[in-house]
Amino acid sequence: MRAEPKHLAVIVPALNEEAHIEAAICELLPVLRRARITFEVVAVNDGSCDRTGAIMDRLATKISGLTVIHHDHRRGLGASFAEVLYTTKAPYITLIPGDNAYRADSLDAFFGSIGQCDLVVAYRDNQGQRTLQRRLASAAITRSLNLLFRSSLRDYHGITIFPVERLRAAGLKLQGYTFHDEALITLIREKCSFVQVPVTLNPEISGRSRAFNFAVAKEMALTALRLFLSTRKREKHSASPEHSDTDVTWL
Predict the structure, then answer these.
(1) pLDDT tens, 186-211?
(2) Quick one: residue 244, left, alpha or beta (phi over 0 = left, psi -120 to 50 = alpha)?
(3) Which residue, of 120, 175, 213, 243, is most buried by count of CB atoms within 10 Å of its CB?
């Protein structure tokens, strides 16, 4: 694979995370520095009505390489990701949640794997700490997506380092919570190589859900169905007589 400069754009989106955003950013920076890469951190205040935006602005006056984007209303994870994707000059991009979901000391291997493959895909290694309902839902989704797309990922809903140019070229909508699933499945389907590395979740705060609910489950199902139908259409196109010399392969 052609060597790329190891420069990474890190998006840290947050909605009403005044209690966690400072730790999420400040604990992330030493890990990025240890990875021996150059990086830019873009904090996105996605329409917060608390002090999240003010905290981001204060940190940006003290931290070199940190910029802040403010949305006047909630636009969602996909829109926040796409906004940076199409403006950054970095060859790699990732999104780290602003709710301080991940233990910073577990991210060294994740950032240290940039350049080994097209994609660096993290899987959460301590999901046993989550509620039984969420563990079962996560396992069912992962198993279903692997069957649908003939893949072998351990986790579709962790964090991923994406190659910017390949993702831009895919022309995806990147909307809503499922933007990550769509981007990951699409690039693997387009034969991007990947390496999987473990990361560790911080303990969840009692009574606080990290995004998963019925609406999100429905969005995931519709996204998976749309991608599956698109895949079948492309397979039939490749199998037609005028394209009989083209094979569809899977990682």
Answers:
(1) 999 899 999 999 999 998 754 455 55
(2) alpha
(3) 120
